[in-house]
Amino acid sequence: AQKVTQAQTEISVVEKEDVTLDCVYETRDTTYYLFWYKQPPSGELVFLIRRNSFDEQNEISGRYSWNFQKSTSSFNFTITASQVVDSAVYFCALSDLTTSGTYKYIFGTGTRLKVLA
Amino acid sequence: NAGVTQTPKFRILKIGQSMTLQCAQDMNHNYMYWYRQDPGMGLKLIYYSVGAGITDKGEVPNGYNVSRSTTEDFPLRLELAAPSQTSVYFCASSFVVSVKGEKLFFGSGTQLSVL
Fold this sequence. Notes:
Chain A is 0% helix and 55% strand.
């Protein structure tokens, strides 16, 4: 069955430290997409990145980078030089093709990141 | 462009009451979803719809009903509210056109307490 595991419930770092959020997934599909979403204290969910299963290149966007490794079924997220504004809950998600040919999304339980000044 | 609009933002219900959470999107998205978020449990899918007139159950559908009479609207109905339905509810939408995953656009959420 499709599953997304974020084993880190909560992480606290001091500002300017680097931090990596782990995401491990399980899927039977050969074509799938992985996502990261950010939920700041205000509560809304914000899309960060989408990666398809055929593209294992790492991606960097400013202080954010993502490491996708199919061999270990992982899609980890690193924040370099963390800032207080990075404090949020981060969710990893996996697209799930149902038997009826429709799509739904499986979310991990989230990692709460606290960046201390 | 409003995106995904959810109403109300907050609501307190008494056990046994019913209510409808409203969700509307103006992006002409075909897929719409309802999730609930419980502390430490992530997002659980309640129901989803792939187009007007088509709905399907997610992981936790019991106690809820949905309808999708138009592309824009996807209301979630709670019948006989129970304390276990205390949660934050998110509506989301996406535009799925082929065999690929599209990002979800989320509403701002509805915080519901059943007392």
